[in-house]
Amino acid sequence: MIVAIRNASKYDTGLARLLDEAREYASVYMLARQRQKGCDGMGELATMKEEFRDVVDKMIKYCQEKKYISQDLSYDIDSIADEIVKGRETL
């Protein structure tokens, strides 16, 4: 899914902005997650996760409206964060 979004963002400036925002949130969330190992119930980490999920949901909705990705998909927020952060390293 992230590969399709990344490819589409090359030609869509609105999507590129959403992907950049998602990358920022993913980086912060991943760093917090690494620092809070074993403490998933921590309020701050849960808040960061929800904020990141909101950004990802907004990006996915945009992509679905533009028909870049399928309407029917589910995702794991931690996997998406990993993919987005790793994608930044390969760009």
Q: What letter string, H or E per element, gives the SSE order?
A: HHHH
Strand content: under 5%
Low-confidence stretches: none
Main β-sheet, in a few words? none
Helices, by number, come to 4
Number of E strands: 0
End-to-end span in angstroms? 16 Å
Summing up helix and strand content along with how strands pair, one would put the structural category as mainly alpha
The gross shape turns out to be elongated
How much is the average pLDDT?
Answer: 87
Fraction of residues in helix: over 70%
Radius of gyration, CA atoms, in whole angstroms:
13 Å
Tell me what the structure shows.
This protein is an all-alpha fold. Helices cover 75% and strands 0% of the residues. It has helices spanning 2-9, 13-35, 43-65, 77-90. The longest helix is centred in the first third of the chain and has 23 residues, at 13-35. The two termini are 16 Å apart.
Question: How are the secondary structure elements laid out?
Answer:
Layout: H1 2-9, H2 13-35, H3 43-65, H4 77-90
Short structural description:
75% of the residues lie in helices and 0% in strands. The protein contains 4 helices and no strands.
Protein traits:
91 residues; mainly alpha; elongated
